[in-house]
Amino acid sequence: MSVLKAFRRAACACLIASLTGAWAQPAPSINSGGLVNAASSAPGQPVAPGSIASVYGNFLLSAPSAAVAVPLPNVLGGLSLSFGAAAAPLFYASGGQVNLQIPWELAGNQASLTATLAGQTSAPLMVNLAPYAPGIFTMNGQGTGPGAILDSSYNLVTPANPAAAGITAILIYCTGLGPVTPTPPTGAAAPSDTFAYTTANPVVTIGGMPAQVLFSGLAPGSVGEYQVNVLVPANAPTGDTVSLILSIGGVASNTVQIAVQPPTPDQRAGQLLTQMTQAQEIQLVYGAGGPVTNNPPLPRGGAGFVPGIPQLGIPDLYLADGSVGVGNGVGQATALPSSIASAASWDLNQATQYGNVIGAELRAYGMNVNLGGNINLIGREPRDGRTFETKGEDPILAGKIAAAHISAIQAQHVIGGIKHFALNDQETGRTTANVQIDERGMRESDLLAFEIGIADSNVQSVMCAYNLVNNVYNCENAHLLNDILKGDWQFPGFVMSDWWATHSTVNAALNGLDQEQPDNQYFGSLAQAISSSQVPQSRLDDMVHRILRAMYAVGLFDYPASITPIDTTADQAIAQNAEEQGAVLLKNANGQLPLNAAALKSVAIIGSHADIGVLSGGGSAQVTPTGGPALTEGYPNPPGWAEVIWDPSSPMQAIQAMAPSAAVQFDPGTNATTAGALAAASQVAIVFVSQWTSEGMDLPSLNFTDLIHTPPIDQDALVAAVAAANPHTIVVMENGGAQVMPWLGSVSAVLEAWFPGQQGGPAIANLLFGAVNPSGKLPITFPASVDQLPNPVIATPPDGVTPFPVDYSAGFNVGYKWYDSQGFTPLFPFGFGLSYTTFSFSNAAVVNNMAATSNPNFQVTFNLTNTGAMAGAEVAQVYLAFPASTGEPPKRLVGWQKVVLQPGAAQQVTIEVDANDSSQPLSYWDVNSNGWLIAPGAYTVYLGNSASGASLITAGTLQIGS
Ligand code: BGC
């Protein structure tokens, strides 16, 4: 404490003065006003009993003496000073100055101060004593602000350095705490214990809340200056001016303000970690839900379980899938439309609602970790059986939609997940596929989707994938996990393995895996790896810190889940809305749609069990719908383990309800001839075609292929037969991703319904009859044929164990970027979708704010007009063509806005593209500097309603630099 040093320097100066003065007086004397309190320092202020003080006078001593041990003596060099009858403890005495402690027992009194030497007593000095005993130093520039209250790093506790409630131990430097003893209050002092403890117990309140006292005694290394260490109470009020008061025996100190904040998740995790044994730490870094550890079995079902540590208050982790609703048969839950349908809404508000349902229902089932957020960029391989779980082919759209889902899930106190990190884009040989890709290619494609999803959602868990990237398994890939995820992106949460995707103990631990799932084949040996110095203990600490931090950040400690019924009604309404916003109208010749209920006499409904239900996607994302499936149809091989489930929502019933006076008849579609006959006899034929897909398999082609029935139904032939029989043939597609449609030219309308979820029936009917105007846009390009794909033939593994290469030389040219770069015209472009009304873009302009220092951006302004006769929504899309020098794809989506307009209405719209957005909209990955760069040059800004050049206008040129 600098105050004490200054005080001691003053003492030395006075000593020198006294040695040169006269000393022949028979009695010592005390100067008028000669008592100065070190704490208050201001002359004339009352001094505090128990505090340290200096007394100036002539004490007739030829040499100074000092005391350093407690208890302090009452006599030094033969001199004693008394306040009335109470002798003062002394720790320095010289000819001109005595440093002492004002006797403790004098609180609030006036006293006469005398000095006695060799039986001679000075004239008394009357002194006023403060009405309190303890005093907190309020010097060091903190007279009107915080006091001399430091954290354990000796930094003042101020608004710039607030204490964390429940976490921070603070050091209060003070005076006047009374007698001290070398004996600790709770037992004998260790021989090496140099502390001196107060004999009375101080009480410290912070914001009125009592604080736990950790130490109270003399400040180490000083005499007369006290130090009280307390833990800031967890229930202390927070703010920049929280009052701290210290009292002894009911006598209060002055009040000092300190700054208190709630503890950060990092601080809480750090504190909890200090209380854990190594065995307890290891318990948290693997699942107890696999065949080795599954004893007892998963207590709440789901996909995984990590038992908590009740004695430390650490809750259990219950892990469940949830990409399209609560998965794994945890219980009946709302079957939402596929995630890709949510992406097709291009609507972050809708995506938030979608995430709300998943989060709320997981929580209602007591699950607190979501294995969702499938963001693999399936545009590389649209035959992937998991496409329905993903958010499409564009990293920006996918990243933003995933982030909206995850944020909503985490808002329900369920740890969100994002997966599968990384480049896990095919199911064929997924555990041995060895993706070969260059750094720039991955940074600007699959990894960018993760970068956005993580940055925008604060997601707390990342699932590393089965496959290898550039010859290294994802779950021990130091470049992906340590360099990029935890390094470049500063991801603070934890990395969990996909199920049995861990391949080692030491490599996995050192290279970034934090939690093995669902078992402990490898991390069960962590203690041995640490004791043999192959893995440092600090790495285990880091794993556990990350897991605990995630649990705190999302509220698992503060908001424990209690199991409750799900809100089926509200959640099904959201499911229906998600489908209505995400279904994409792909064709509507001659205004076939919307159907006019009043004029409709007869309707043929054909195929795909449309009389009773709608199809869902299989695998770990499979939802068991509320009310139970309409129908289950076996376990196709591959994958062999995933069941075909039809959700209980009948399109036929919903269509009949929309057109009550029409004769609505059903044909199962198993026989093209009978189906054609019903179509011929009906005014309108609606054919439902479906493509079951699942985790664990890829599609043999992009044609609708029946993988469920023996013999398979030839759906292409079925549509062709129906279209030949009826010119008013409408195709409704239930599938997970891109398809080819050999019959497209012969049908009058096509609605892409995706896997529509358990409110699919009414949603489809609303769309067909125009109760809802379609506004979904494709988040994935539909190629004209598989020959247009970067890999027309899916790479296949030689066996189940040998890694095999998968060529990603297309790099960042995924989806529309690939088709653009090759000059291919796809069947339907990315971003495409029709409406029952029409829109026009006009007066487009580009505003260049790239020179702004705080938020460099550009804006595209334009007028959007609904030129048709029906209210509807258009998704205005902004694409950017980079200067050729950058080597970027021909164009990149950089922004969009969904705008709802009444018929005839026009709106001026501004889409702002921020250079610093997480989506790096103006940057390219520079391999030399290993970072994102913005290149100078001229950028062409396109505006329109799909990625097809024909639907885009040039809004302007954006010049960056000179
Ligand atoms: C899937 C993951 C899933 C996990 C747990 C794995 O087979 O790849 O996406 O979260 O199982 O069900």
Task: Give the arrangement of secondary structure elements.
Layout: H1 2-20, E1 29-37, E2 52-58, E3 65-66, E4 79-83, E5 86-87, E6 90-93, E7 97-101, E8 110-117, E9 120-121, E10 125-128, E11 135-136, E12 149-151, E13 163-164, E14 169-175, E15 180-181, E16 197-198, E17 203-206, E18 209-210, E19 212-218, E20 226-231, E21 239-248, E22 251-252, E23 256-261, H2 265-274, H3 278-283, E24 304-306, E25 317-321, H4 339-344, H5 348-364, E26 369-371, H6 395-411, E27 417-421, E28 433-436, H7 439-443, H8 446-457, E29 461-464, E30 468-469, E31 472-473, H9 478-488, E32 494-497, H10 506-510, H11 526-531, H12 537-554, H13 568-582, E33 584-588, E34 602-606, E35 614-615, E36 631-632, E37 645-647, H14 651-658, E38 663-667, H15 672-680, E39 684-690, H16 715-725, E40 729-734, E41 749-752, H17 760-769, E42 804-807, H18 816-822, E43 839-849, E44 857-866, E45 872-881, E46 892-901, E47 906-914, E48 924-926, E49 931-933, E50 937-944, E51 952-960
Parallel strand pairs: 13-23, 25-26, 27-29, 28-30, 28-42, 29-32, 34-38, 34-39, 39-40, 40-41
Antiparallel strand pairs: 1-2, 2-7, 3-6, 4-5, 4-8, 6-7, 8-9, 8-10, 11-14, 12-14, 14-20, 15-16, 17-18, 17-21, 19-20, 21-22, 21-23, 24-25, 30-31, 33-41, 35-37, 36-37, 43-44, 44-47, 45-46, 45-50, 48-49, 50-51
Beta-D-glucopyranose is lined by residues 303, 321, 328, 371, 419, 498-499, 620, 695.
